[in-house]
Design a protein that fits this description.
Shape: elongated
Helix content: 40-55%
Protein name: HAMP domain-containing protein
Membrane topology: Multi-pass membrane protein
Strand order of the largest sheet: 3-2-1-6-5-4
Organism: Paenibacillus anseongense
Radius of gyration: 50 Å
Number of strands: 18
Pfam families: HAMP, HATPase_c, His_kinase
Keywords: ATP-binding, Cell membrane, Kinase, Membrane, Nucleotide-binding, Phosphoprotein, Transferase, Transmembrane, Transmembrane helix, Two-component regulatory system
Strand content: 15-25%
Largest sheet: 6 strands, antiparallel
Length: about 575
């Protein structure tokens, strides 16, 4: 299959991308979704804070007014005329007694006039057996008012205010109940104050109460939600927080705020249909969703454009390179569009043809050379290693150490089975790594544990990557032959594998003491010229094989180990250096 004739279009690819990007970006910049969203959140927060501030302001007014009434009542209890009448009443002349009663009535009038919330103010004086009130005047006891006050005073523990039906009273006593003052609070005035708060919003209700007492006063027409509202407020109070609550009750979402009326030990609660708070913001919400939908549409259009103009041709080129990696060179890429990708596809086709011819010329030679290198390495197996291993097994059997002899026999059989097999020249990395560990185990047994090894298990998925056989064991063998030739008694061999983005690094280190800088430099020189050497050792053999298969960036590299001996790195780059 051949390419069409190369040409050039009016617009280049990057120009198309820039134009499409500008055209699609303009509406996004104009609408500015982010700014609108932040503005919407800010307005909602301001509305919520305004509602909380309004309810808090009125609740404080009510609380201050009731505190004032209580303070006036306490001042009245200390009235000099009242105290004198309490102590000397019944022992003075009638004229003087009447005079004192009139003066007490004047004080009660002042108390009642101090606040619109006071319906009635009165006092019971035990010494004269009378109740003086602004509503009923002077009455002898016992009477209905006296019985009411006496009954309420028996309540324990003493509440902040007293309830009797629809009546709310503040009652204070002194001189062992010789004086009992009461003030009746106007529920109609309190309800009017609550209605004033509720007037802030059309769909709102205000109540005064708590979870235990329920609703004392309420502007709500629908009382079904009140128990739930009071329960939520009680939970907030237990957590010592006055933050507003947003809760759905009976299918309706409510904004709930509350303040403490300390003079009554009650909560003033306002709850508003949340839709009323946010009704003016619905148009902003609508715009937000519209902008969101437009943004999604724009992103889809932009993605489709990039997919069509860039991704599809790049994907085609990538698949072609993947086929090249699988040694499929009988291909060519056809392009109907006359742009930069047309030139790339044409260049790829020429490269594939040249690569095919090059492989045909060199591939067979390279494969033959690799086979000869592997055969040479197999032929270099030291027979003394086998003889010494058999002698070790013999001695173990003589000394009765059958378990160790069995283990050594098993390891030795596995070792020779691996190196003499005539199957594929490539094996999974973990098998090659395991073979090297088996060799270490055999050597450590042979050296009577004078030398030991440490290694790190491979857990990365790349352990299944195919690598040439016999690339790690020759390096380890070199360590046992040369690193500990001075009779080291605590020799250690270290093996581990690192995974890098471009490939694998297998590291073998030792703590031998016989490596000099001169020997290290000679070894580097030997590895650098290993391809020209006619007779190769195990390490140079591995170096040549890795370079043949993976390119010049791969191979065997030596340096001084941090443990004092030699460090050998086997580098396998999957991406060959150019």
């Amino acid at each position: 299959m051949k390419l069409q004739a190369a040409g050039r279009s009016r617009w280049l690819v990057y120009q198309k991308i820039v134009i499409v990007f500008i055209v699609l970006l303009i509406p996004l910049v104009v609408m500015n979704i982010g700014v609108n969203y932040k503005g919407l959140a800010f307005v909602k927060e301001e509305i919520s804070e305004s509602a909380v501030a309004g309810a808090s302001f009125y609740s404080k007014q009510i609380d201050n007014e009731l505190y004032f009434i209580r303070n006036q009542q306490l001042l009245f209890m200390n009235n000099r005329d009242l105290q004198k009448l309490s102590f000397v009443g019944g022992t003075i002349e009638n004229f003087e007694e009447v005079q004192l009663i009139d003066q007490v009535k004047d004080s009660l009038l002042t108390l009642q006039s101090s606040s619109d919330y006071v319906v009635d103010a009165g006092v019971y004086i035990k010494s004269v057996g009378k109740i003086i009130s602004m509503m009923n005047g002077v009455e002898s006891t016992p009477n209905e008012t006296f019985r009411m006050i006496s009954t309420l005073m028996e309540t324990t523990p003493k509440p902040s205010f007293y309830r009797l039906g629809d009546r709310m009273l503040f009652i204070e006593s002194e001189n062992n109940s010789g004086i009992m003052s009461y003030i009746e609070i106007s529920k109609s005035k309190l309800l009017a104050a609550l209605n004033q708060i509720a007037a802030l919003y059309q769909k709102s209700a205000v109540l005064l109460g708590d979870e235990k007492l329920g609703s004392i006063l309420s502007t709500a027409k629908d009382t079904d939600v009140i128990p739930t509202v009071l329960s939520l407020v009680e939970e907030q109070s237990e957590r010592n927080t006055n933050k507003p609550i947003i809760q759905k009750i009976n299918g309706t979402s409510y904004f709930i705020t509350h303040s403490q009326v300390s003079s009554l030990n009650l909560s003033l609660v306002m709850y508003v249909n949340q839709n009323e708070l946010t009704s003016k913001l619905n148009q902003f919400t609508t715009w937000f969703y519209a902008i969101f939908a437009i943004t999604i549409t724009v992103l889809l259009l932009y993605s489709f454009s990039i997919h069509f103009m860039i991704h599809k041709p790049l994907s085609k080129l990538t698949k072609a390179f993947q086929m090249i990696e699988t040694d499929n060179l009988n291909l060519s890429i056809e392009s109907k569009r006359k742009d930069e990708f047309h030139y790339l596809f044409n260049s790829f086709n020429r490269m594939a043809n040249r690569l095919k011819r090059s492989i045909e010329e060199n591939y067979e030679q390279k494969i033959a050379l690799q086979h000869s290198e592997l055969k040479q390495l197999q032929s270099q197996i030291n027979p003394h290693f086998l003889y010494n291993s058999f002698f070790n097994i013999y001695m173990m059997c003589k000394t009765g150490d059958s378990d160790t002899a069995a283990e050594l026999s098993q390891k030795l059989g596995s070792y020779y089975q691996y190196i003499t097999r005539s199957g594929s020249d490539e094996v999974p990395l973990f098998k090659e790594y395991r073979h090297a560990l088996d060799y270490c185990e055999i050597q450590c047994i042979r050296f009577s544990n004078r030398i030991r090894y440490e290694y790190v298990e491979m857990t990365h998925p790349v352990q299944s990557v195919l690598v040439p056989r016999l690339i790690i064991q020759p390096i380890v063998e070199n360590v046992f032959e040369h690193a500990f030739e001075d009779g080291t008694t605590q020799g250690i061999v270290y093996l581990y594998v690192d995974y890098r983005e471009q490939g694998i690094r297998v590291t073998v280190e030792d703590n031998g003491k016989s490596l000099t800088d001169e020997k290290l430099e000679q070894l580097r020189t030997k590895l650098a010229s290993s391809a020209e050497q006619k007779e190769k050792t195990g390490m140079t053999n591995v170096n040549v094989r890795l370079q043949l298969k993976y390119g010049a960036g791969s191979g065997v590299f030596v340096s001084r180990s941090q443990h004092g001996g030699l460090r050998v790195d086997l580098i396998i780059n999957f991406i060959k250096e150019r």
